[in-house]
Design brief:
two-stranded antiparallel sheet; alpha+beta
Length: about 425
Amino acid sequence: MGDYSAAPATSTGSLPASVADLPTADFFDFESLLSVQEQRKLNELRAFLESEIAPYAGQWWEKAEFPEQILPKLAALRLSAPAQRGYTHLFAGLVIAEMTRVDTSIATFFMVHHDLFVESLYDFGSDAQQDRYLDDASNLRTTGAFALTEPDHGSDVAGGMQTTARKVQRPESDGGTYWVINGAKRWIGNGTFCDYMLVWAKDEADGSVLAFIVDASLPGITRSRIENKIALRTVQNADIVLRDVHVAEADRFAGISSFADTNHLLRGSRIMVAWQAVGQQLAAFDVARQYAVERLQFGKPLAKFQLIQQHLVDMLGNAVASMGMMVRIAQLQEGISTDAHGIRHGGADMAQVALAKAYCSARMRETVALGRSILGGNGIVTDYRMAKIFADAEAIYTYEGSYEINSLIVGRAVTGVSAIA
């Protein structure tokens, strides 16, 4: 896998020959498991990231600005929902890892839009909804958000959801049936600028959880950016308030009738966040190794010191172990099949995915801390990439299920006893 510079954020991302000739962080060559076509496509992505993202990512992060101008070029790569395009799940995961390796925020935007919003259209959208929304969304002519979590409900949103939807039935001559949605959502990635939101709400009539494709410009919707973040500053997370928002029956996801229907989507996004934890470790290793090779202290490169080499080896071991776990998850994903009733069988189950997310994010935290240590004082200034990598890791550690919640999901699976509820 490609390497990116440890130099200040304004660097082009190229490496000196002395480092470029060394083994990459993909020390066990997992990438060789891809087809030749997939390897070429991954290299195409790398070239895009090096020219269009790497030189500017630090500036976007510091200013907390999202670069909407890159969306047409990103769309031109045709990487939306890779598994839907015939690529393997391993390739899809490495796409996220490689994006994260260069800029965690861009990878997060990509995941929210493609792995949650677009995949929702594929999995739960009616033929009519797919005809209306899918082509524009897949090609980033429109952008989407996934509005699930709430101000008072994150990990417990399944049972505590407070956003409601009330059905109003009218004759077709009077506009037809519609829903009135009231509530609030928080931490919604892409929420400040998206065109559409997949909003989850509880049916006032029977308490079932429903989902709606909501035009973000509808009357009654207020969106405000969450400020003062120390991680994923380029990502525009929003607080969203919905007051008597009218949504047509045609924009209710007919394929969703309970929170259990979200499991497939959440399992998939959790896998991708675990891949982000891999990418974050690859980035930390790249930056720390280059710094260790180039930085002179006591008249010799840092890399000549035994403790620094030990740090780098520990970082590499964490990254390789995490990659190995995710490669196996990708293999399990390839075993998914759908029966005549539309029910999925096989694949990685939620407990396996939870273990992968918990383990990889814990190793990531160790890895970025070691990398930050290698850079010394330069590890805490955004002139050098490590400070951004270190800060962004905290978001990965928390979202798509915190380390603790994912651990308890695994604990329930291996003991048969739930410690959550």
